[in-house]
Amino acid sequence: MEPGFHFTDYQKAELENSFKKFSPNSEGKITIESVNNLIKTIESTKSNKQEISPSDYSVDPQVAETKTFLNGSSECDFDTFISTLEDAISKPDVFEKALAQSFRLMDMRGTGFIEAQDLMQLAEILGENLSGEEEARRIIHRAEENSEDGKMTIKSLRAFLHNDIDSNLSP
Prior knowledge:
Elements: H1 9-21, E1 29-31, H2 32-49, H3 61-64, E2 75-77, H4 78-90, H5 92-106, H6 116-126, H7 133-143, H8 154-168
Antiparallel strand pairs: 1-2
Helix pairs in contact: 6-7
């Protein structure tokens, strides 16, 4: 196995379940169009509900209009998806840019925090099932252990992901 970050079998299985939801055909590939449409759906939902300027928290237009995946193709199979993610996570500059974009997408109300309501709304858009606000609060608490207000910051998300990444790095 190559040095760097590698997902566990459990993480791959979880990612594969999500991947399949966005695979519009039976060939097991996602298209850049489906990813762009998902980003546009999330941005549209956010801009209809937030009180501050959408440009303050929106996704970089170049990211939302990406024509190809990092491998240069307009389609991506699961194995390529996983290897691309692992490679990106192993590169700090790529990881930080992706983290910032992801955080802005998850911050559904544009508050600068991710709260239970944000996770519930995002889960609904993604077709995921959260059993309720309490489950969303538990997810946030796992990342933001010292938070009394149930708000996750980008700093706590970064630390949470780094802890998970560090525990999965190859020796």
